[in-house]
Specification:
The protein is of the alpha+beta class. The protein is built from 5 helices and 4 strands, in the order H-H-E-E-E-H-E-H-H. Bound molecules: zinc ion (ZN).
Length: 164
C-alpha cells in the first residue's frame, strides 16, 4: 500500500496520535498565558512528562482526558459495553501510573495539578482557568512564606511592654 500523505499531513496525523497540541491543552495554555503565567511544554526530564511545567511555581499541570484517565463520577467516563474487562484494566493501569507519577513529583518537591477535559467545556472553562490561576498563586505564596521572623521579634517586645 502506498503512502499518499504529504509530509505535512503525516506530521499532523502523528501529532494527533501523540496527542500533543490537542485542544484542551491549548485552552489551558492560552488561559494561563493571558493571565501572565509562563510555562514549558512536555518537560521530558520530569517523570510522566507533564503537559505544562511552571518552574517559578514549582508546579506541573496534567491535562487529562476523562475516559483515558478514569475521571470518577464524570459522564465522559463510561466503560464501553463490549470488551469491558479490557477497558476497565486499561483505565485502571493509567490511573495507577498517574498516581505513581504524582508521588514521584511530590517527592521531588513539585506540586501537581490535574485539569480534567470536562472542566474545559465552554460552560465551565473560564471558572476552571480562574481557579487554576488562583491555585497557582496560592502555591507561590506558600512556597515563599516567611513565618519564623515576625514571631521571634514579637516575643521580646511583648515582654518589654509587660515590664512597664
Ligand atoms: Zn470529566
Amino acid at each position: 500500500m502506498t503512502d499518499i500523505q504529504t509530509p505535512l499531513q503525516r506530521h499532523n496525523t502523528m501529532s494527533a496520535i501523540r496527542g500533543k497540541n490537542t485542544k484542551p491543552e491549548m485552552i489551558v495554555r492560552r488561559g494561563l498565558w493571558k493571565r501572565g503565567f509562563r510555562y514549558r511544554l512536555n518537560y521530558k526530564r520530569l517523570p510522566g512528562h507533564p503537559d505544562l511545567v511552571l518552574r517559578k511555581y514549582k508546579t506541573c499541570i496534567f491535562i487529562n482526558g476523562c475516559f483515558w484517565h478514569g475521571h470518577e463520577g464524570c459522564k465522559y467516563y463510561t466503560i464501553p459495553k463490549t470488551n469491558t474487562v479490557f477497558w476497565v484494566s486499561k483505565v485502571k493501569r493509567n490511573k495507577e501510573r498517574d498516581e505513581r507519577v504524582k508521588h514521584q513529583l511530590n517527592a521531588m518537591g513539585w506540586n501537581c495539578i490535574t485539569v480534567w477535559e470536562c472542566e474545559l467545556k465552554p460552560a465551565k472553562r473560564e471558572a476552571t482557568l480562574q481557579s487554576l490561576a488562583f491555585t497557582l498563586n496560592e502555591i507561590f505564596l506558600n512556597n515563599h512564606k516567611v513565618i519564623p521572623y515576625k514571631e521571634q521579634e514579637a516575643a521580646p517586645l511583648l515582654a518589654a511592654e509587660e515590664m512597664i
